[in-house]
Each structure stands twice: as C-alpha cells, then as structure tokens.
Amino acid sequence: MTDHSHMDHSGHMDHGGDGGMEPMCSMNMLFTWNTENLCIVFRQWHVRSTASLLVSLVAVVLLGAGYEALRAASRRYELSLTKEIETIPRQNQAAAGKRAHLTKSLLYGLQNFYAFMLMLVFMTYNGWVMISVSLGAFLGYYFFGETTSSTKENACH
C-alpha cells in the first residue's frame, strides 16, 4: 500500500519552488473578504495585486451600472416603439408590432444574460465584489432608473 500522507490535498499542485507556475484561482463557496488568488468569473480575470483589485472593483461597479443602463435603453426603445406604432394606420400596426418583437426579444435575452453574469460575479462570495455589484446596481438605478419602479421583477439581479 502506498502512503499518500505527505501529499498536498488542498487542490493546488505543489511542485516545490516556484517552478514558473502561476497561482491558481481560489474557489470560495462561503462568504469571505480574502482577495488572495481571487478570480472573477473567468480564469483570466485574476486579481493579483491591490491595484488589480481596485481596478476590478471599479469594473464590477461599472458592469452593475451598465446593466441598469441596458434596462433603461430597452424601456426607451419600447416607449418610442409604442408611439411609432400608434402613428401607423391601424391595419398595419400588427405587422409592425411583430417586426419590433424581434428587437424586443433580443434586448430581453441580453438583459437576462447580463443579469446571470452579474449573479456569477456576485457568487464569488467575496465581500468586496458583492458590495461592488450592489453599488453598481445603486448607481445604475440612480442614473438610469428615474422612471422605473424600485421593485424588482427578475430574481437574479
């Protein structure tokens, strides 16, 4: 029988020395403030320093605000579309509405994709990232949600 008690079972490979290997992303399933080896959604979005953490947190805030900007643009599109369709003769309104439904469907799909991606960002379980997502939602709603109810319809973001 082989004795494996000397092996590192922490999920990271230990080859002794630095060997040119880069630190692996940590995957937390519990709330943490630790930013060491933090990766945000993608392995390439690897926080390696205080500066990259700050840049990442600003990026997350902007992503959160961008989601609200997309929602606002979708609402503006729908309002302008409704006004435009009202100017079309009644017999042509249904056809115009069906054509516009494709664009509305695309905007709806983009909003859902965006919301789920923000949910994944939030699910780093890192307190700093979670606060940044929430701050982005706050700022996005503040700047783009003036004509929108503050109650949410979508549960994931």
TrEMBL record:
GO terms for molecular function: copper ion transmembrane transporter activity. It is a multi-pass membrane protein. One of its GO terms (cellular component) is membrane. The chain crosses the membrane at residues 51-70, 113-144. Keywords: Copper, Copper transport, Ion transport, Membrane, Transmembrane, Transmembrane helix, Transport. Pfam families: Ctr. The keyword Ion transport applies. InterPro entries: Cop_transporter (IPR007274). Its main location: membrane. It is found in: Membrane. The keyword Repeat does not apply. Belongs to the copper transporter (Ctr) (TC 1.A.56) family. SLC31A subfamily. This is Copper transport protein. It comes from Sarocladium strictum (Black bundle disease fungus). The lineage of its organism: Eukaryota, Fungi, Dikarya, Ascomycota, Pezizomycotina.
